[in-house]
Amino acid sequence: MTKIAAEHLARTAYVYIRQSTPGQLVHNQESRRRQYALADRARQLGWTSVEIVDDDLGRSGGGTAPARFDRLIRAICAGNAGAVLAIEASRLAQWPGMAHADRVLWIGRGRHRRRGRNL
């Protein structure tokens, strides 16, 4: 039985791609390929609207948030994100307001999560 409901599929699925240093971009290309493959996984699970958020690749967490990352945060906080697919989501977890993102299905590493708990 799946925990993905029609209400999730009606909203956009966001795929968050994260590698924080230029060295990771060079030396961990397989990780990046696996992260981009999450967009295909979202479509397999039934999402028709999938947005990839990768504009902070190779950047550490300091400073201002890139435009697509900021748009992702706003979508989560406003309840407009149906799912967030990510292998590495520590930067998202640190953002204010994530504790209240209870309408979002969090998918990563083969598990479906909502607010940090397995579904």
How would you sum up this structure, described in words?
It is a single chain. With 119 residues, the protein is an alpha/beta fold. It has a single domain, classed as Resolvase, N-terminal catalytic domain (Rossmann fold), CATH 3.40.50.1390. The chain is 35% helix and 21% strand. The protein is built from five helices and six strands, in the order αβααβαβαβββ. The protein has helices at 6-9, 22-27, 29-44, 67-78, 90-93; strands at 12-16, 50-53, 81-86, 105-108, 111-114, 117-118. A six-stranded mixed β-sheet has the order 2-1-3-4-5-6, sandwiched between helices. α5 (90-93) links the parallel β3 and β4 (105-108). The termini are close together.
Q: What labels would you give this structure?
A:
single chain, 119 residues, alpha/beta, Rossmann fold, six-stranded mixed sheet, 5 helices, 35% helix, 21% strand, disordered C terminus
Please give the count of helices: 5
The percentage helix is 25-40%
CATH homologous superfamily assignment: Resolvase, N-terminal catalytic domain
First-residue to last-residue Cα separation: 10 Å
Number of strands: 6
What percent of residues are in strands?
Answer: 15-25%
Q: What Rg, in angstroms, do the CA atoms define? A: 14 Å
Strand order of the largest sheet: 2-1-3-4-5-6
Give the CATH architecture: 3-Layer(aba) Sandwich
Average pLDDT metric? 75
CATH class: Alpha Beta
Order of helices and strands: HEHHEHEHEEE
Low-confidence stretches: 110-119
CATH topology: Rossmann fold
